[in-house]
Model the fold of this input.
Amino acid sequence: MTQPTLIRRVHRADHLDIAMRLAAGGLPVLPLRAGKGPFGNCPTCEKNACGGRPNMKTPGPCACPRPCHAWAAATTDPTVVASPAWMAAWRHAEAVAYHPGGAGVTVVDLDHQGAVDWARRTLPPTRTVATTRGEHWIYSGTMPSVNCVRDGVDLKSLMSYARWLGPGTGTTTDLPPAVRALADKVPATARPAPRAVSVPAPADGGECRHRSPAYLERGISMAEQRITDAASAIHTTVYRTFLAVLSAHGRCGCLTEAHIARLFTAAHARGESARHCTEAWSNAQSALGM
Done:
């Protein structure tokens, strides 16, 4: 992966210039707003008006000429990067992001010093980029993206995005089997199953409304967006959102691991660790007597 030498911390006015240089070097880029969330990168999808989920692995229900959300929006086309539709996003962007899978690499995102120490003991050395709390280890090769493969460790490659923090140091080496194996060893705490409480069937004999796909989908989507849009107090927002979801949907058994994973993914995108997510979920269950 060809990467120009750039300073790590930049002003907003420099984001477009950096993005153009990265795109010219073959790195698919996109703008990130505050909180590391991607923009809806066209007027139709501004502020998520189209109903898509920009922090998730799918572009969402979007009728735009091309996918404009998150990893699906990442591009090396300079006419798109500097297009009028993207200019407003760059003016308000907090950072530049890129699609690792589109660049043919996998990022092992190490969220704290304990995770970094584990990587140094366990994984072969490769190109390393310092982050605000840990490091990105970048390997050549792609794989499915998986969050929470262990405490403080996420894998970002296909259908994912990572923040650009500079070229880093060292030489990019091939993706080792040890990293691929992590995707098959996700700890149970990263995907907690709710402790469902049995409740009587509706008095009228009808189907529980929480099992309605539309009702449940709307509730989960609203919860994701609440976490994504939080301007501050992320820990509190995540806990209160988990509490609201469990209060509405946790007692009838309709929540699945896929739904919980979506909430955890939204929280991870705002910087929450696997431990914080698990604690928030458990505390919400306890508060509701579940």
In short: The longest helix spans residues 213-229. Confidence is low (pLDDT under 50) at residues 1-10, 53-61, 187-208. The radius of gyration is 20 Å. The longest strand covers residues 105-110.
